[in-house]
Amino acid sequence: MAECPQVINALPPDFSAGRLISHIVQMDAEGSPDVDCLAAHYNKQYVVPAPFSLNAQYYYNHRANHFLRRSAYDSAFHYTRLALKCDSILSDSFYLATDLGLLANIHLMKGEFDKSINYYEQSLSVLNPRKHPANALSLLSNLGVAYLKTDYYETAMQYFRQALEYGQYADTPYGRRSRHVTLLNIGIIHKKQEDFPQAIQAFHSLLDTARLYEYPYLSYLAHFNIAQVYRQTGSEKNFLSHLDTAWNVAIEHDFNQHYLLTESISHAHEQKNWKKFIDYLEKYRTYYEEDELKCDPEWAIWNSRLLLEYNTEPAQALFLLSEGLNCIDFYTEDALDLYALRSEVFQKLGSYKKALENLTKSKVISDSLARRTNLRILADATTSYRVAEYQQMLDQKEKEKAWLRKRANYTNALALGLGAVLLLISFLFYFYRQKMQYKKEALEARRRQLETLNKSKQEELARQKQRLLTQSVQSSQLKAKVLDACERYRRNSAMLTRKVEMAFNEQPVWENFLLDFNQNYPGFIDRILQEYPDTSKRQLQYVVLIALGFSNQEISDMLFVTPGGVEKAKSRLARQFQINDKRRLSQEIMNLFFRSRQEQ
Q: Is-contact 147 386, C-beta < 8 A?
């Protein structure tokens, strides 16, 4: 093993707690000697500062598994209890189920099957198997093993089948291994129930799987169990073929050969092949210490048969059998075999009374085991029925949960839909209010604008009214002046004619008149000449008189023309001003007159 500081310094600097514990687990699986050093480093860095954190839980779980693989059950118990304490603080059902399963594994390894069954059931009660199918597979498979160890075959079979149901969803190396172990145990149950065709089928499927995934240990177990089945069915050739194959795989990969040795020794005794029997028995001796062999009932029985049947040393055989009986319980199958063999030895020695006593004890044990078997079968059927009922209850609860989840999904969808509709309505109502507010504001602005415009129009109308009034007064005054002039010169027509001609026909007087007109009404004559530049001086006189509001008769009197001449002059002006109706001429000229005054 490398020095501990060197191992720690070799770690990448960015290693987090999760990556470090995964690295430690991997090294432990590979059998690295640096595991304890790294575990101590992890403990110092992450566990000591926070002894009941999630990082500490990882550490306790790993150490418990580490000591369980080495059969250090007290240490495994210690770390499992610490992990369970972390689970109670963290309140995580997955880790709680894992650590309860670990505690059940410890009891299973110690042979305390009732306790292991209790903890497995507790673990399954807190685990969500749909969410963690690999863990459900492992727990159900181990629970089936616990029932298998207690000969509850039907109950074990039910749990194994449940495990396989979850196994199809656990396509990981760990899940595949658990699934294969479960198939192996199913084959073993068929073998114990003497359903040999089903057992052969199960074990052969394991051989195919072992070749596919290159699992030599699985191949070894499959060949060994197939050999046992063929031995029970009396197929000697097939038995030896598979037994030899199992031996070759075990030797090649250095697997434990205990079961192969016991099977080979038993077969050699049946065949009375004492040479092989002695060779296998000697090989069996090399696997165990002398103290372990003293309390091994199989070793005592095989050596006693060798001494009794081959070496003819019944006294030595009797000594070995007595030592074996001192180490085992009375009501066991090993005790039954030992007392039956002791009865044979006493018969060989001629001690028939002791032979009868031992035969009676073996009969008592046999009856007790038969009763226990019958009770086990009844209990197995009851437990199997209870498990089936429990499974039906779980299925019913699962259906109810699924229905509740479905109803909750529908309710949530409906609530979301209603919420979306209400939200949409709220948005529409908001936008509608905003739009109406904008319209209201626009209408209010338009109202104020119209009020302002109306006020300005009213002011303009007032001004126009004032101007018209002023123009009317001025026109009346001009008309009065003209009429006064006409009245004053009525009797002297010649003088009137000269005055009119002087006013409208002589150039200087006309220009003076225009100057006076422009001073009183500026812009009008300029606008007429600008818009209608072809207007003659005579036409301009008509325009001025029309603008001042004189009638046709008054114009004819002032210009010394007939009223018909005035009409003709107006018709020519209408054509020149592009007015279709000469009746509109006076109105248009008056409008131009008023507009020119407004602009000023």
A: no
pLDDT the model gives residue 475: 57
Residue 561 CA to residue 270 CA, distance in Å, equals 169
Comparing CA positions, the residue from 344, 345, 338, 346 lying closest to residue 362 is 338
Torsion of CA 283, 287, 289, 290, to 10 degrees: -20
For the CA atoms of 335, 337, 339, 341, what is the dihedral angle to 10 degrees?
-150
| Angle between helical axes of 493-500 and 352-488 (0-180°, round to 10) | 140
Give me the DSSP letters along 144-170: HHHHHHTT-HHHHHHHHHHHHHHHTT-
User: Residues 205-227: what's their mean pLDDT?
Assistant: 85
| 138 CA to centre of own chain | 26
Contact (Cβ atoms closer than 8 angstroms) between residue 540 and residue 525: yes
> Smallest Cα–Cα separation from 244: which of 232, 230, 233, 234?
230
d(CA 182, CA 145): 9
Distance (Å, whole) CA 120 – CA 107: 10
Q: How far is CA 165 from CA 157, 371, 495, in A?
A: 13, 35, 141
Widest distance between CA atoms in the chain: 202
| DSSP conformation letters of 159-210 | HHHHHHHHHTT--SHHHHHHHHHHHHHHHHHHHHTT-HHHHHHHHHHHHHHH
For residues 565 and 587, what is the distance between their CA atoms, to the nearest angstrom? 20
| CB-CB contact of 216 with 238 (8 Å) | no
pLDDT top residue among 593 and 357: 357
By the 10 Å C-beta count (0-12 exposed, 13-18 middle, 19+ buried), 51 is classed as middle
Q: Are 223 and 246 contacting, i.e. CB atoms less than 8 angstroms apart?
A: yes
H or E stretch at 327: none
In the chain, what are the domain boundaries?
Answer: 194-252, 489-599
* Alpha carbon distance 524, 532 (integer Å): 12
The winner for highest mean pLDDT among 9-23, 98-112, 172-186, 527-541 is 98-112
User: Buried b / exposed e across 571-591, counting CB within 10 Å, b at 16+?
Assistant: eebbeebebeebeebbebbbe
Residue 348 neighbours by CB under 8 Å, 6+ apart = 308, 314
Residue type at position 27: M
| Calpha distance 425→273 (Å, rounded) | 96
Measured distance CA(186)–CA(192) in Å, rounded: 10
Q: How far apart are CA 60 and CA 64, in angstroms?
A: 6
Cα 217 from Cα 225, distance rounded (Å): 12
pLDDT at 352: 84
**Separation between Cα atoms, residue 276 and residue 268, nearest integer Å:** 6
**Per-residue confidence (pLDDT) for residue 104, from 0 to 100:** 92
What's the angle, vertex CA 65, arms to CA 146 and CA 286, rounded to 5?
75
